[in-house]
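Sync notes, pocket subgroup
Present: LS, DG
LS reminded everyone that the earlier model was apo-only. Rerun requested with pyridoxal-5'-phosphate included. Inputs:
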Amino acid sequence: VSPRQPHARDLLIGVDRSESGSVSRQLEEQLRQAIRSGALPAGSSLPSTRVLAEDIGVSRGVVTRAYTQLAFEGYLLLRKGAIPTVRTSSQLDRKREAKPKNGDAASRIRYDLRAHLPEVASFPRKAWLRSVRDSLARARHTDLSYGDAAGLWELRVEVANYLVRARGVSAEPEQVVITGGSTHSLALIGRVLARRGKTQMAFENPSHYILHGVAESAGQEIVSSPVDDEGIRTDLIGEAQSVVVSPAHQFPSGVALSPIRRELLLTWARDTGGLIIEDDYDAEFRYDRAPIGALQGLDPEHVVYIGSTGKTLVPALRLGWAVLPESVIEDFTLELFSTMLHVSGMDQLAFADFLRRGEFDRHLRQMRAIYRDRRDLLVTELANLLPGLRISGIAAGLHVVLEMPSCEIAESVCTRARSRGVAVETISQHTLPKYNGRAGIILGYGSLSMPALQSAIEEFARTVADVMQEATEDPAAVAGVP
Ligand SMILES: Cc1ncc(COP(=O)(O)O)c(C=O)c1O
């Protein structure tokens, strides 16, 4: 035996015949784990197949099978007559397994009250798994090949049915295109318009900052239009050729677009040939009265309706839809095709099944009740603990706004709360230039259980009280105080 060759005992490798699974698989898994964890560093030697087989009492074929599989996966270098060695590229795996840089900051958050988070813990895993299993078992071979860029037909039918019934959208399956979520839909429509030379896109001020970046990357210049208590100021859209709005529950202010403004917005589109992009991001959750129907239902030829499972199921799914006017269907689908061909066919199969079984509606019904309780708790406790501050935007969605005397105080509260483990957002994080509306803190109640929410509110309210107290004593000291 060559002195350079290690033995199984040096590598702490052995097989257990009482365990289920083949012996070769056991060996393979132990070696893979040793390489990935760094216990077997890059460049290190492994015993020859003969030595290892003798050491652990298996046939040489068992070791050869394990080594061949690991060589195929890129972990081992096998050359005829040479001792097997660990490849240098496997270092990459360890890097991938390392904690991301922001991991520590994220772990310091005890209570996450940011607005974009739904209750991921309630994702109906069993029902989803059933849909995955059953839809895959039923799928034709052709369903597993490249599909239609616009999406799986059966899913487009199910989504159209759902939107007509639940959101008052006017949708034929031909108009529905399946995308990777609302941000993806916005990116695609932005690119379609840019190719047509229409590069001015108006946004409500404030509106979600992520959407501004998405539109800019799609070649759009952002034009800002103020929001008041009736929603977007339609008289101030300016020269823009398209406008992004969230009529059911404006993000972040929470106001609903008034009936008069709805009419004015549609008139703007008809008069100028402009396109309205309706971001219906959280309208399924409305608590105190019937949901407000989608604007798109009033004039489908002037509105692109975009929706997603990001808030209704979980963000990780990355599955959404756009309901398009005739004039943009083809170009939109081409943009999708030329950027990613189409979204995952497997997920589309599963979601179609999930919708067909009524699981999506069942989940929404359950979540609506859960979110209503959380909203009630948040609103009641804020009113108790911070009686002088106005709360708005409470009728729908997954967040409310707590108004603040100034942007500086709101920023200070946000920074101070973060240092105490409570993550919140401010309105000013979502504003565009020339904003002169109210200052406030956005409080999302989607992701915390009732007891956690109760503690979060108490900690948050203490923070607000502290910052307000300091602001009264020494106003100059407040801005940016951690
Ligand atoms: C107002 C608004 N629109 C769109 C999105 C993004 O949705 P999606 O996950 O479907 O891309 C969010 C996410 O938080 C949002 O708050």
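DG: The pocket of pyridoxal-5'-phosphate is lined by residues 116, 181-183, 208, 211, 246, 251, 279, 281, 308, 310, 315, 320 (CB under 6 Å).
LS: The two ends are 65 Å apart (CA to CA).
Action: DG to write up.
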